[in-house]
UniProtKB/TrEMBL annotation, chains A, B, C:
The organism of origin for this protein: Tahibacter amnicola
PANTHER family cross-referenced by the UniProt entry: ORNITHINE CARBAMOYLTRANSFERASE, MITOCHONDRIAL, ORNITHINE TRANSCARBAMYLASE, MITOCHONDRIAL
Family under the similarity heading: Belongs to the aspartate/ornithine carbamoyltransferase superfamily. AOTCase family.
Record-listed N(2)-acetyl-L-ornithine binding positions: E144, K250, L293
Function: Catalyzes the transfer of the carbamoyl group from carbamoyl phosphate to the delta-amino group of N(2)-acetyl-L-ornithine to produce N(2)-acetyl-L-citrulline. This is a step in an alternative arginine biosynthesis pathway.
Binding site for carbamoyl phosphate: S49, M50, R51, T52, W77, R112, H148, P149, C150, Q151, C292, L293, R320
Gene3D superfamilies: Aspartate/ornithine carbamoyltransferase (3.40.50.1370)
Name of the protein this chain belongs to: N-acetylornithine carbamoyltransferase
Length: 338, 338, 338
């Protein structure tokens, strides 16, 4: 039987995703279990984390397991990912060794590895987590690379708590301004999961340059073909918000500008009015607002929106704990006892 | 019922403090319990820690709980504390979100946040931990900000182990030299706890500029009015040490010089003779010496004093473990099961 | 009874080492136990770690204990090791306090402290771990200083898994190139453990300047006198590899060049041909290859060697978990219950 990973929700059937969400709801009602008794997970953070680290570490503990948190390049050795390299640079060991050794120690490996933001054609290969998945002999979990599937599950769980069935809900994924060009991971993920669950999805962004990678656009089109939802791109704020049930915000850098961000900055700065505010939310169908966090207040969304009852970002963040426990439990079911 | 925090010992009655100390003594005799079974604590360190981190992490574990250690701005996202800010600077998320999300994950939140040392009028507002206490929906514990209440309990526990009843003991809190202008937290705390427990307290410092913030001086005066102790300020080393039962040392920067430390440095450097040495200790009533640690040897106290039987700093440090378990257990008693 | 540490395998009798290895084999078959129930270990990392940290943290957990990971100078206070110093420099506390306080909290202390690489006559004193062993009142474990005894046990365990009895096996410890002048710790350790277990050991290095410290050469000579093995130094690659059963590779800086590495660099760079490759391995007696990791591929050993069945480096890395649990269990047996 081939090894099962949690790299993207697209590798999991809709029935499997529903089962994960059901298990997450069960964990929300009753936090403790023995699904990871005697098992362990290594959490590799190539980038900062607060929610992910806390919720995975606690989640493993609550299921009887143990999490080891590692920061390669900071308190562990920097890692090489290319094949065949003569390693005379900064990296001290190859992912092949790291993944194989960790697989001897632990039962699951989680990896957070953001893009380098220099060349999208490189970043879109997502080679760090793919290398771990290639060499590890235990399941690998995506803690955010160029998608963020754990966030997807937490997000859709929060939406279900609010709406129940999500078919044909009007869902707006809106770009917002941020002083730095950010990762597209959560935006890609929002597109995938919203289309997967049959919603009518609008991708709202300033210009065509801010449309997401065609790989994710195409997957989203395939998803709506199966799920019965729809997908459109819009640059019209008022039209997008009108009648929306769900507004999900995220900032990201425009893909054509990777590596020459000084050229993108003035475009980004000219669209600060994409901020989610009360006026825009008033156009919705008494819609809810969410965001993956961290969120810069009064940049991405106003204090008024963040502090309103419509904001379910804290619920979504809480759900990270529950869905990730469901993912760990599902993957660990198939790992051998030591 | 409103949420109970452990931000300062002044919020806890003398009977409550005595109960915490009794519980700490019980934990010293028998380390293990289930008071935190199924519970967890997030420990947020904005500044370095050795004793605090080790003793809280172990203490939670010994009571059946789990501690997650986070370093915001280093391996987690930098946090904004001001209200209404347009967050276009370095901070990536607001304490409102951090505190509310952590409250969904954990049952207790510990926060270490030292002053910035630029403007005492700002630092004295202690806004980091106050913001956590404001937004968190679980109890918040002070791991040292501008006071250090856990150290207070460990200190008074060590003194009781030595003396039993502390009423009317002659207690000297002496300033000492240190190459850097340090936090007044432990000095403020020593003043509070020594006056609270009815001791005759002398604050010994080089000049009137080194007297502590009037807020703590006034609380100390209120404390002695209730406890039957006394409080005086002295700049006379020999007179202060003579007949003392307890010498507690701490270095701190003079409050009027915050933000212009180059002006304070020569004053500080001219008072290196405040070092605790054998000659000074010989003036005491066979007194004990303690310090919160870390301590620079032969700067704050000589090797001879540190290595003498009179030094109870190691006992005080050990007691951190016991008193903090008592604090966690007391606060967790009122948190809901998940 | 005097305190037992695990600072070097030379302090442990051959029978004791055999018992540790037997226990490690037992742990490899059955991972879980209660040998550390209610006990804890502080892991102090003055340098980065991946395998050591993960395997110790997990190992303690699997035996019912708890590990606290500390990084002095990074997230804990910088520590002074000299005696009698007037501490007006960068260090904030003395090892005497750190070791004594940690001994009150935990039952075992592990220390990783690499040399400073400026002056070998200083580094060879190994004063960091010796200071911890001097002041601690609990056992201290060497996590790599100027030797690496945990690696030794993992290494010899892997060799026994392959060969059974190791008497008179032909063992080559070969120097290899690395862009930086590295620690001699694993090389010293390989020399000690291979001679201890009765092997015919060749130390292969580019020039006499790369021979290891006379302290370890002399211990190795004493070891072979007792164990029945042999020791020779060679600068002839082909002669050394011919008929070898075991090739163990490590790079290190030449001792006479400590502190003036610019002079050593050209010598080191002129010996890149010491890389372990298929041609060299073909000279052996169908020998195995190993390395302590991290390893720079195509610098110390080629991809072909690393990915060949002859490479047992991953097994050796796995064994770190098992042997370290055996060491912790052996030391904790004699620590008092709290």
């Amino acid at each position: 039987m081939s090894l099962r990973h949690f790299l993207t929700t697209q590798d999991w059937s809709r029935a499997e995703l529903d089962a994960l969400l059901d298990q997450a709801v069960a964990f929300k009602h009753s936090r403790f279990g023995q699904q990871l008794a005697g098992k362990s997970i290594a959490l590799l953070f190539f980038n900062p984390s607060m929610r992910t680290r806390t919720s995975f570490e606690l989640g493993a503990h609550q299921l009887g397991g143990h999490a080891v948190v590692l920061a390669p390049g900071k308190d562990a050795w920097p890692i090489e990912f290319d094949l065949g390299t003569v390693m005379d640079g900064d990296t001290e060991e190859h992912v092949s060794e790291v993944a194989r050794v960790l697989s001897r120690y632990v039962d699951l490996i989680g990896v957070r590895a953001f893009p380098k933001f220099q060349d999208w054609s490189v970043d879109r290969e997502d080679r760090v987590i793919k290398a771990f998945a290639k060499y590890a002999t235990v399941p690998v979990i995506n803690l955010e690379t160029i998608t963020h599937p754990c966030q997807e599950l937490a997000h859709v769980m929060a939406l279900r708590e609010k709406f129940g069935n999500l078919d044909k809900k009007k869902y707006v994924l809106t770009w917002t301004y941020h002083p730095k060009p950010l990762n597209t991971a959560v935006a890609n993920s929002a597109l995938l999961i919203a289309t997967r669950f049959g919603m009518d999805v609008t991708l709202l962004c300033p210009t065509p340059e801010y449309v997401l990678d065609e790989r994710y656009m195409e997957l989203a089109r395939q998803n709506v073909a199966e799920s019965g939802g729809s997908l459109r791109v819009s640059h019209d704020i008022e039209d997008s918000y009108r009648g929306a049930d769900i507004v999900y915000a995220k900032s990201w850098g425009a893909l054509p500008y990777f590596g020459r961000w000084q050229d993108e900055a003035p475009i980004r700065q000219s669209h600060k009015h994409f901020i989610v505010d009360e006026a825009k939310m008033a156009l919705t169908n008494n819609g809810v607002f969410s965001h993956c966090l961290p969120l810069r207040r009064n940049i991405k969304a106003t204090d008024a929106v963040m502090d309103s009852p419509a904001c379910i970002a804290i619920d979504e963040a809480e759900n990270r704990l529950h869905v990730q426990k469901a993912v760990m439990a599902a993957l660990a079911r198939h790992t051998p006892s030591r």
